[in-house]
Design brief:
alpha/beta; TIM Barrel; 8 strands; 15% strand; binds phosphoenolpyruvate; glycolysis; triose-phosphate isomerase activity; TrioseP_Isoase_bac/euk; cytoplasm
Length: 266
């Protein structure tokens, strides 16, 4: 079975409303060409909260429209939670999916495993799809703990899912912390090895690892995207820095479309 390939852009705390709208428009305009008729690739963009409304008109549900993502989501439905933005607010802003557990949130904003699990559940309950980020720090990889760290993050986020929530709406992105924004990419072998471990864990947890798109993130650029996809286990990317430029983001989408077409032809 061929899995959907996702190319998602995480704009982080960059771009005010107008530049966000311009970038979204450039991506939306270039997408039909970059997809080149490929039906196996979907794209999403995650601007900052305050630019969601300026970006939303350039997004949509269609095959050749970028999905609108949020970079985070509050863990509560509503109430006295100063500064938080809940799932219903994001839905109202036309957001389709929320990123949870990004390593920058884990490192700088106290998003520990339990909070990530709570955000994930709140997002699903509120009607959003979820991109769950997991990944080890450099010292954990150097100590040979990378697989255990990632599996424990996955397990904390997904094991206690309430039965009414659909785990099929969660896409996992493996993002080794040492590769994010550093220019250092995991090798295709390192990323594939981790993806295979994640699939094994998902299978053991009854979450259909084989059917799921698993993404990689960490210094993905137009010139390394094809090589990462060719490794076989990687079904797309969460892209930070290279998603801030329409041309590089679209070039990554083109690599993904070429890969999808050649996999379908096999
Ligand atoms: C990210 O922020 O999720 C990311 C992978 O960033 P970069 O592509 O810049 O490494």
């Amino acid at each position: 079975m061929s899995r959907t390939i996702w190319v998602l852009g995480n704009w982080k705390q960059n771009l005010l409303r107008e530049p966000s709208a311009s970038l979204a428009k450039a991506i939306a305009d270039g997408l039909p060409d970059a997809l080149g008729g490929s039906s196996g690739v979907r794209v999403g963009i995650a601007p900052t909260y305050l630019a969601l409304d300026s970006v939303a008109p350039h997004t949509g549900d269609g095959r050749a429209a970028p999905r609108l993502l949020a970079q985070d989501v509050g863990a509560q439905e509503a109430g006295a939670f100063t500064g938080e933005v809940g799932p219903a607010m994001l839905r109202e802003a036309r957001v389709q999916a929320a990123i949870v557990g990004h390593s920058e949130r884990r490192a700088h904003f106290g998003d520990h495993d339990q909070l990530v699990a709570a955000k994930l559940q709140a997002a699903l309950a509120g009607g959003l799809d979820v991109v769950l980020c997991v990944g080890e720090r450099l010292e954990q990889r150097d100590a040979g703990e990378h697989e255990a760290v990632v599996i424990s993050q996955l397990s904390a986020a997904l094991s206690g899912l309430a039965p009414e929530l659909d785990p099929g709406r969660v896409t996992v992105a493996y993002e080794p912390v040492w590769a994010i924004g550093t220019g250092r990419t995991a090798s295709p072998a390192q990323a594939s090895e981790m993806h295979a471990a994640i699939r094994r864990w998902l299978d053991t947890a009854g979450l259909q690892g084989a059917d799921r798109s698993l993404l990689y993130g960490g210094s993905v650029k137009p010139d390394n995207a094809a090589e990462l996809l060719a490794a076989g286990e990687i079904d797309g990317f969460l892209v930070g820095g290279a998603s801030l430029d329409a041309r590089s983001f679209l070039d990554i989408v083109t690599s993904a479309s070429n890969h999808a077409r050649s996999s379908q032809a096999r």
